[in-house]
Amino acid sequence: MREVAIVGSGMTKFGELWDMSLRDLFVEAALGAMKSAGVDSIDSIYIGNMSAGQFVGQEHLGPLMADHLGVAGVPATRVESACASGGMALRSAYLEVASGMSDLVLASGVEKMNDGADVTGVLATASDQEQEVYYGVTFPGLYALIARAHMEKYGTTEEDMSWVSVKAHRNGAKNPHAQFRRVMSLEDVMTSSMVAEPLRLLHCSPVTDGGAALLLCPLDRAHEFTDRPVKILASGAATSTLALADRADPADLDVVDLSGKRAYEMAGLTPEDIDVAEVHDCFAIAEICCYEALGFVERGKGKDAAREGITDLGGRIPVNVSGGLKSKGHPVGATGIAQAVTIIEQLRGEGGEVQVEGANIGLAQNLGGSGASSVVHIFQGV
Amino acid sequence: MPSPRYHREIPARFRLEAGKCAGCGRVSYPARKVCPACRGQEMEQVKLSPRGTVVTSTVIHVPPDDFLNEAPYAMAVVETAEGARFMTQVVDCDPSTVLPGMEVDLEFRLIRKEGKSGILCYGHKGVPGSV
What is the interface pTM, i.e. ipTM, of the complex? Predict the structure, then answer.
């Protein structure tokens, strides 16, 4: 396999973007990535997208997006793994460049959620239709079941989860791309309306429109396009059971553990080597589970991390300096790419107000469903 | 839900039919073609006992459209004596009392209605245990 670098990135504002369509979001993000690398042609496109078919009634995104980007003719394919679609699209692009098949590959993600679809119903299709949705469970409900299991096993509390949301908003308030750029107090979180016990509204990521894109090329060509390339050290992916009830233990996101181990092994690194990370906080409990599964803290200690500042800016391992899915927003198919965009900026020293000093190695973890698929990438500034 | 799709699920939903792996004894509910524990493909049909224990639970306050009139309602992962786990609602009690460790009986109930004139869809729900 060839070594692969990221040489360009682009991203739209995240939010309720009533003036932008699915294709507008893709084109703005893709042009941003191409312009930042100074390229006007590419060899191939991957588009992470969970459910344009249900959100806006549009399938067959490959040719649509290639055409609107003005590069009709290049191979272009949609990649789907629910909310991990973006991360899986990056993995596909990485493999295509690493294999030697193509040199300049665009890894993108896009989702248009605010065009009138029944969002709760669409998101639920990432879980088991026959065994879960049939009986009336919602996506927040599935993570609430994980939260209660985590509370039973490790003594995690509602306040522990609330500190994760407080941290997310403190960081997101400084992110110009974020959907909700405002600080939230512990009281704001703990008095927000109940969605699925024990999860309240401010433990849940919002419904978001957005797009993000990265340009990949072989490492030995990277300096043709940028002075500050970022190398992809590893890509680790894993699956677990689709239905939560079929997992060995609903308290732990074992799929994150497995994808993380594969990435660490490929990179020859340990959790202690990571300077900055973006993890999939679709719900506050998921971030706590990810701390543990990725080895940032011991099992059962995830509950203390946000409260004690371990994962805050200036902490031992800053997590979700972008504001995470909670504050930045969660356009499901775009999220995995957007996480990587944040890490790339950090490793290039372009993190602005939330720059982690001296960050050299970063990790992005993207989760699908209630913990059925996960992909972890590790990056290094070179 | 088109009726052929609903029809296929009737043995599991109406009669709690499950599959037991002839190789390792693992019970899967609903039955599967391949055992998730040992990959064995020889399955014997078994019926779950209609009671179980709550493994984890939640109370849904913001429901899907089809369940608007029922919220707030409790949902739980329930484990039966055979070791099978599945998702179901737990009803006929204060939903906040549905917590891990609770014993429930499984009763045949209406689960949902498909639209204004669709078929009525049945299955099992948990109720507070009688023993």
Answer: 0.97
Burial of A350 (C-beta count, 10 Å sphere; 0-12/13-18/19+): exposed
Report CB contact under 8 Å: A121, B9.
no
Mean pLDDT of A192-212: 98
| DSSP assignment of B50-107 | SEEEEEEEEEESS--GGGTTT-SEEEEEEEETTS-EEEEEE-SS-GGG--TT-EEEEE
From the list B36, B62, B77, which residue is nearest A140 (CB)?
Answer: B62
**Taking residues A128-138, what's their average pLDDT?**
96
Residue range A150-163: average pLDDT?
Answer: 98
d(CA A86, CA A89): 5
Question: What is the pLDDT, as a whole number, of residue B2?
Answer: 65
| Smallest Cα distance from B130 to chain A, Å | 23
Mean pLDDT of chain A: 98
What lies within 8 Å, CB to CB, of A37 at 6+ separation is A7, A8, A215, A225, A226
pLDDT, averaged per 10 consecutive residues of chain B (131 residues), comes to 84 97 97 97 97 98 93 98 97 98 98 83 95 62
d(CA A317, CA A26): 32
CA atoms within 13 A on the CB side of B118: 14
Of the partner residues B9, B63, B86, the one whose CB lies closest to the CB of residue A136: B63
Residue type at A79 in one-letter notation: V
- The pLDDT of A303-332, averaged and rounded, is 98
CA dist A22 to A1, A58, A110, A212, Å?
Answer: 34, 9, 7, 12
Q: Which helix (H) or strand (E) element contains residue B44?
A: strand B43-47
- pLDDT tens digits along A47-94: 999 999 999 999 999 999 999 999 999 999 999 999 999 999 999 999
Q: Which domains does chain A have, with CATH numbers?
A: 4-118+208-224 (3.40.47.10), 123-204+233-381 (3.40.47.10)
- Distance from C-alpha of A98 to C-alpha of A105, rounded to nearest angstrom: 11
Specify the DSSP element, H or E, that contains A232.
Answer: strand A230-239
**CA dist B37 → A168, A210, B24, B29, B47 (Å):** 39, 40, 8, 13, 19
Contact B61 A195 (CB under 8 A): yes
Is residue A109 a contact partner of residue A334, using CB atoms and an 8 Å limit? yes
Q: Which tokens go with A65?
A: 């997006």
Chain A nearest-CA residue for B13: A131
Q: What's the CA gap between A108 and A135, in Å, rounded?
A: 35
Tokens representing residue A12 in the block: 């739209």
